[in-house]
Write a structure and sequence with these properties.
The complex is a heterodimer of chains A (134) and B (229). By secondary structure, chain A is mainly alpha-helical. In chain A, 78% of the residues lie in helices and 0% in strands. The longest helix of chain A is centred in the N-terminal third of the chain and has 60 residues. In chain A, 36% of the residues are buried. By secondary structure, chain B is mainly α. Chain B has six helices and no strands. In chain B, helix 2 packs antiparallel against helix 3, helix 3 packs parallel to helix 4 and helix 4 packs antiparallel against helix 5. The two termini of chain B are 41 Å apart. The chains are: A mainly alpha (134), B mainly alpha (229). At the A-B interface, helix 1, helix 2 and helix 3 of A face helix 1, helix 2, helix 3, helix 4 and helix 5 of B.
Chain lengths: 134, 229
């Protein structure tokens, strides 16, 4: 008789117990899913945001050294790539600035093209300019 | 026949590195506070909501199934007179729970694989043109970037950066083409005219990197008036 009573009690309590355990389960699963989804996508989102801000600085202030991203972040290769591009650009502009400064200085002399110096300088500038593909 | 260019970008970078004296930038530590950023808010939010909705549906469906099965098991047990050894209602319920968990795990794995596929595809669609443009920039290839869709802010900025540098380089090219050393360079007005042209190019060029700044300092100290006007 006891066994029958226990079964009847179990049957009566089946719906509330399943509902409560279901709600707890949904809450836990929802939280875990959100946490995993956010963590896995943010390791990409962070570096991309960093690149965006860095490119804004490049646009405003010309070629600048690129700040590195966090050690554990993804897209380390892209960060290096960006830094390398900025450095190439800076190296190119530096070389050009140097030759322009030299030409300007030569023009302060009485005979700027003495020994063909200024012409050589101008030729170098044009060679530098030819490195760029339009 | 075109004359061979003595310059290469690799050589320029080598010289730049030798002289730049720029210290390596510190790597950001792993565990610093990170603010919440989205690559694509709509995509990430949709994926997140879809996953949470799927989990909720799975749990609700699983519980409904368990309710039906448990009810049936209890009913059967109520009217059963003889209980077989090792085949009680508890064991049957446990089997049903195991089945539900297995189904949920399998569906979750498939859903995660699908979500990952969507995510990787999206990230690749941003990174492929991003890398392509960086590669072109490294080679000083300033041809127009046609057919690139700015799917993300970073791509949009990259396009703007390249356009800005392209405009700058085109202006330098035009100014250089206008410089000619014909004329009597011993005359002050001819020299001054040329100086003005060089100064114009100088203004288009970006600020010097660190090594050039020290050279400029020396230049100023040598008292050459008018250069930075």
């Amino acid at each position: 008789m006891d066994v029958v009573q226990h079964y009847a009690l179990s049957r009566r309590n089946l719906i509330p117990s399943l509902l409560i355990s279901g709600l707890i389960l949904i809450l836990i699963v929802g939280l875990i899913t959100s946490a995993i989804a956010i963590y896995s996508t943010f390791r990409v989102a962070g570096p991309l945001y960093h690149f965006t801000r860095d490119l804004e600085r490049q646009i405003e202030e010309g070629p600048l050294p690129v700040e590195r991203i966090r050690e554990g972040d993804l897209l380390q290769k892209e960060c290096f790539h960006l830094a390398r591009s900025a450095e190439h650009l800076q190296a190119y502009y530096d070389a050009m600035s140097e030759l322009i400064d030299l030409a300007w200085m030569q023009l302060t002399l009485q005979d700027p093209n003495m020994g063909g110096g200024l012409q050589k300088n101008l030729d170098r500038l044009r060679e530098l300019e030819r490195l760029v593909r339009f | 026949m075109t004359q061979e260019n003595p310059y290469t970008i690799e050589d320029l970078v080598k010289v730049h590195r030798e002289k730049a004296e720029t210290p390596p930038l510190p790597v950001r530590p792993k565990n610093t506070f990170r603010r919440r950023r989205y690559v694509d808010f709509v995509l990430q939010m949709r994926m997140l909501l879809a996953l949470v909705a799927m989990e909720t549906g799975l749990v609700a469906g699983g519980l409904f199934y368990l309710y039906i099965r448990f009810d049936a098991i209890i009913n059967n047990s109520l009217y059963r007179i003889h209980q077989r050894q090792g085949h009680g209602p508890f064991l049957e319920m446990l089997q049903e729970v195991g089945l539900v968990i297995l189904v949920i795990v399998v569906i979750n794995l498939l859903a995660w694989m699908f979500a990952n596929w969507i995510w990787v595809r999206f990230v690749q669609s941003v990174l492929t043109p991003f890398n392509l443009m960086l590669d072109r920039m490294s080679r000083l290839d300033m041809q127009e970037d046609r057919g690139i869709m700015p799917k993300h802010e970073s791509l949009d900025r990259m396009l703007s950066w390249r356009q800005k540098e392209r405009r700058r380089m085109l202006m330098i090219k035009a100014y250089l083409a206008g410089i000619s050393l014909e004329g009597d360079l011993t005359k002050a007005d001819v020299r001054s005219n040329l100086q003005n042209r060089f100064r114009k190019i100088r203004r288009i060029l970006p600020p010097h990197s660190r090594r050039i700044l020290s050279a400029i300092k020396e230049f100023r100290e040598a008292r050459l008036p008018g250069f930075d006007d």
